[in-house]
Amino acid sequence: MICVQLMCGSVEKVVNEMGVAKDMGADVVEIRLDCLEGFQPRPKSEGVQYEGDEKSRLDALRLAGKLGADYIDIEFKVASDFLVDATLEQLANTKIIVSCHVDAENSSIEDLNHLVYGMQSTGADIIKIVTDATDITHLDKIFNLLSHRKLPMVAYSTGVRGLISQLLSPKFGGFMVYASMGNGSVPGLPTLDSIKQAYKPELVNAETKVFGLISKPVGHSKGPLLHSPTFRLVGYNGIYVPMHVDDLKEFFRVYSYPDFAGFSVGFPYKEAVTAHCDEIHPLAKVMSVFTFGNFDSKKGVSVSLFLDSIGAVNTIIRRPTDGKLIGYNTDCEAAISAIEDALREKRCIGDPSILSPLNGKQFVLAGAGGAGRALAFGAKSRGARVIVFDIDYERAKSLALSVSGEAHRFEDIINFCPADRAILANATPLGMHPNTDRIPDTLGVYELVFDSVYTPRKTRLLIEAEAAGATIVSGVEMFLRQAAGQFNLFTGGEDVDASEDR
């Protein structure tokens, strides 16, 4: 079931929000009485500020049962006394949820199983365990509890690192998924709208394959809105979720089982994640299945010659035959083809077999990280002259050397004088906004300006570039094209045996 948590200050607002939640598709609402002004039903030890009379609090919950509440959530430490004192009349049609807040980081699986056994012995109808995750790897204990439940169980973790404990709960047999009414206003709780539109927990089961974005942060990701519905569209049993990862090594160690079948890789891990891949695919085989439109097989070959040098991975597949992690880069062709198509459209060049419009052009690149490396090698493969600017000058020099280009300090981009009709590509995570002092003064000289940032669709850089007369390409174009390549890999559209090409 999908449960919306209502944290309203007045009874009137609770009633109104209940109606809204029902209309939006919620199955049940949890009314947080401790949020009502003047009525604090939970003790301070359970995370709120109630310090009143315990008997009055429990009497209020018994009355809730008598008045027809479908569920009552009672803390484990008082559950036995509560159930002994309650009459059959008071709880005739009410199911009891016995809950407990746990420090999962410092609790072993054995500790948690012992706790669950004690909670079951109270006579509970449903067990609920809540933790405060300080790392996404701690959620594996929650999934273990759900998989070995004896009673219906709700188990999740709060905070941004706990989000997948909600989204993947149905896969491991969870009884209920929590959602919020607002726009991500409660960290770790998906919104009801995203639950209904993107994740569809009623369709998730034990056989569902898990894919996700490894990044830090992950709140900006549009991947779930794209991949999860598309999985359903083609009849593939998969779900795509945001994964806030702090430690790559520990993440891959804990989530090593086959059902965690593939990952997108975002900032800041596109370079670092290569150390955790068993193999790096050269991309040549993948090219033929990407739906980029104007694709030239000869250019595809030239790109493949550069992939091992890119040193950045944005897609990982767990090979079903042996569980090895195979790294790919779908950013390279996605970004370059988006830029080429925009130039061809501007120049009314319809034949993609004609020499790339980037050939011989000056390609000015801001940022030498994972996305920047993909852009640099892609541009080089098309015959462009690459000039790299980065806040880390040594990193800029390293990338420039790899593509036979030039390196400059990032602050010099403001006054840099590009060649006539040059290309400017931004591969920094900030999209040069709101740091307006970092936007070049020479935008009008560039023929085209590309921004890898896709939220918002038009960054300040693109707005100013368009006003200066340049053709602009949004990061949305790159995002959609690289996602097409990822989707083929996720769903088995490409043979991922990369051993011969390592």
Automatic annotation (TrEMBL):
One of its GO terms (biological process) is shikimate metabolic process. Residues 213-287 form the Shikimate dehydrogenase substrate binding N-terminal domain. SUPFAM superfamilies: Aldolase, Aminoacid dehydrogenase-like, N-terminal domain, NAD(P)-binding Rossmann-fold domains. GO terms for molecular function: 3-dehydroquinate dehydratase activity; shikimate 3-dehydrogenase (NADP+) activity. Pfam families: DHquinase_I, Shikimate_dh_N. InterPro entries: Aldolase_TIM (IPR013785), Aminoacid_DH-like_N_sf (IPR046346), DHquinase_I (IPR001381), NAD(P)-bd_dom_sf (IPR036291), Shikimate_DH-bd_N (IPR013708), Shikimate_DH_fam (IPR022893). PANTHER family: BIFUNCTIONAL 3-DEHYDROQUINATE DEHYDRATASE_SHIKIMATE DEHYDROGENASE, CHLOROPLASTIC-LIKE ISOFORM X1, SHIKIMATE DEHYDROGENASE. This is Shikimate dehydrogenase substrate binding N-terminal domain-containing protein.
